[in-house]
Design brief:
351 residues, Penicillin V Acylase, Chain A, 8-stranded antiparallel beta sheet, 6 helices, 19 strands, globular
Length: 351
């Protein structure tokens, strides 16, 4: 338990970027990045069967709310299998957490109500095991008391996407749950999502393409190159700037015919949010053994029940087909995202 608390307390709360794409065949793809620049995280995928008994951590140990999964699911976890940050269940419900520092506030831990207490880092598991739609998410979470397991840790907020493409965001502010329909499908970190929506008003001048020539009196102005309609698009890695960039990259992307093509498109878009580790530290202080602050990127095809990921060690896209898993018979298990922490290189033979 000490190790778990120490890990949660020291995760930096500064960078996760999520987008949502919908293909012409009606499929919805929820994709996002996971950042952590301090060190190499222990990352894994976790397979959870139906009827699996789970229990939440509390500040005093593994003695919180007990629950049994109704649905099987696959999730991506950090440091230990209980800390699932993104996942997809057999009903096509996607769930993920994003850091939300300085704006969220959970209810304080009450040991007398520990049988209702659910750790924030285990909420994804609870929702994926219990729910098939976002309306069911709201009903299920009304029964629990979401807590942090270490007072030093940042709060988080969550997004949930069902197979129909409907998405909601949950933020716990002033100890109260607030659910927001999120038709835009973009999410980053603090401030709250309503603030990010309002902030888009500062960028109503942005447009795709190249602006026409402009007459400055005797001087004729021309664009230096393509894309001048996006002059003023913020390029830094703060959550507000990433939200604006993600929104414009998403809404200007051509709609793809199929879910898999949308998955590939999502990875291309999220390339723009890979964060070099050196940008997170003062000059000369960046760790030399962390290839990227973006440790992995994941995309969930909610229609076809497929989850895809790539990592900072291996940019090849890997996938897990939930339809091929017998969730009545499979065992509860976890496996590293990277069996070998080295980028494979394909040698091209010239003849």
């Amino acid at each position: 338990m000490v190790a778990a608390c120490g890990f949660v307390a020291h995760i930096p709360a500064n960078a996760c970027t999520g987008i949502t794409l919908k293909s012409k065949d009606g499929a919805a793809v929820a994709a996002r990045t996971i950042e952590w620049a301090e060190s190499v995280m222990n990352t894994m995928y976790v397979v959870v069967p139906r009827n699996q008994e789970l229990q939440s951590l509390t500040p005093s140990g593994m003695d919180g709310m007990k629950f049994k999964t109704k649905y099987g699911f696959v999730g991506l976890a950090v440091e230990q299998k209980e800390f699932m940050v993104e996942g997809l269940n057999e009903k096509g419900l996607s769930a993920g957490l994003f850091y939300f520092p300085n704006y969220g506030e959970y209810q304080p831990y009450d040991a007398a109500q520990k049988d209702r207490c659910l750790a924030d880092f285990q909420l994804v598991s609870y929702v994926l095991g219990e729910c098939s739609t976002v309306d069911e998410v709201k009903k299920a979470l009304a029964k629990v008391r979401v807590i942090g397991i270490d007072p030093r840790a940042s709060t988080v907020h969550w997004r949930f996407t069902e197979a129909s493409g409907r998405q909601i965001v949950l933020e716990i502010v002033n100890q109260e749950m607030h659910f927001y329909d999120n038709p835009l499908g973009v999410l980053t970190n603090s401030p709250g999502i309503e603030w990010h929506w309002m902030n888009l008003n500062n960028y109503v001048n942005l447009q795709p393409g190249t602006l026409p020539e402009h007459n400055f009196g005797p001087v004729e102005g021309k664009s230096f190159g393509h894309g001048s309609g996006l002059l003023g698009l913020p390029g830094d890695f703060t959550p507000p700037s990433r939200f604006v960039r993600a929104a414009f990259f998403q809404i200007t992307a051509a709609q793809q015919p199929s879910a898999q093509e949308s998955v590939f498109q999502a990875f291309h878009i999220l390339n723009n949010f890979d964060i070099p580790a050196g940008t997170e530290f003062p000059w000369g202080k960046a760790p030399t053994d962390v290839p990227s602050a973006t440790q992995f990127t994941v995309a969930s095809d909610t229609h076809n029940r497929m989850i895809y990921y790539r990592t900072m060690y291996n940019s090849n896209i890997r996938s897990i087909d939930l339809k091929a898993i017998d969730f009545d018979r499979v065992g509860y298990q976890s496996h590293p995202l990277d069996a070998v922490k080295k980028q494979p290189v394909e040698m091209v033979k010239v003849r």
